[in-house]
Design a protein that fits this description.
By secondary structure, the protein is an alpha/beta fold. 58% of the residues lie in helices and 10% in strands. The chain has 13 helices and 5 strands. Strands 2-1-3-4-5 form a 5-stranded parallel beta sheet. Strand 1 (124-128), helix 9 (133-145) and strand 2 (150-153) form a beta-alpha-beta unit. The protein is elongated. It starts with a helix and ends with a helix.
Length: 265
């Protein structure tokens, strides 16, 4: 396996950086399945040290370093296949895995519960921040097309105001891949305390926001550290939104009786 891109500058690295390079070289199969946090914990160093080393070695970040390792492993198994070909295949496989695993963990009762809340609420506030904003905009506009009184809230100041004035017959739908964004967690607490229904779309992990949720839909994501990497895929979030919209669309288009049957359940 050719890992020259990682080992070439070994003598110029610090003691901690050499420790990381040695682990990368000796355990590449393990590293490609680790997050930067998991690698840092394994080596008893900070995550920042891992990320800084990746950039020092010429990668855009830790994710690209993992792609490099994965490509080298597969290239060793099939030397006729180019690094570019393997990179593309890995990207396709990762996207396919994210979609497949997200769909596999869905539960109809949870989807039905969210649709019920959306239909019963006087007003639904869709709240999203950062790179999740476009998904909030998409969801709120489609809910409006389905005759749901919906307001998109993506401004931090408006989120603070909403936390003081939300009413029990209103609901909020929060979109957060990490599930730990402070403004999202704060509004979930405020709404929960005031008796408003709280719906959450987030990654399948132990997130803070889900603790205040009446119903949560989870998606699969390999990486949820969005604070320093807003290029992380949100395909899973988009799938959750589409499941909700298509489920609700059926009841809206089939007529009022079906809609009432849904709400009574």
């Amino acid at each position: 396996m050719n890992l020259k891109r990682i080992t070439n500058s070994y003598n110029e690295l610090s003691v901690l950086e050499k420790k990381i390079v040695e682990y990368l070289s000796n355990h590449p199969e393990d590293v490609i399945n680790m997050t930067s946090r998991e690698l840092a914990d394994t080596l008893y160093i900070s995550k920042t040290t891992v990320i800084n080393l990746a950039k020092k070695l010429g990668f855009d970040g830790y994710t690209e370093l993992k792609y490099y390792l994965k490509n080298q492993i597969h290239h060793q198994d099939d030397p006729k296949e180019s690094q570019e070909d393997m990179l593309f295949k890995n990207i396709i496989n990762d996207i396919s895995e994210e979609a497949t695993k997200t769909l596999s963990i869905q539960n109809e009762d949870n989807v039905r519960h969210i649709v019920k809340i959306l239909m019963e609420s006087k007003t639904v506030y869709v709240i999203s921040r950062g790179a999740s904003k476009p998904f909030g905009s998409y969801l709120s506009s489609r809910l409006a097309m389905l005759k749901i009184r919906c307001i998109l809230v993506d401004d931090l100041n408006l989120i603070d105001i909403l936390s003081e004035h939300i009413e029990p017959d209103e609901s909020i739908l929060l979109i957060s891949l990490s599930g730990n964004t402070k403004s999202i967690v704060d509004i979930s607490k405020a709404a929960h305390i005031k008796g408003s229904k709280v719906m959450v779309l987030t990654s399948f992990s132990d997130t803070k926001v889900q603790k205040n949720s009446d119903v949560t839909l989870y998606c699969y994501a390999k990486n949820t550290e969005t604070k320093h990497n807003d290029l992380i895929s949100r395909i899973g979030i988009h799938i959750l939104i589409q499941v909700i919209l298509q489920y609700m669309q059926y009841f809206v288009e089939e007529g009022r009786n079906d809609k009432h049957d849904l709400i009574r359940e």
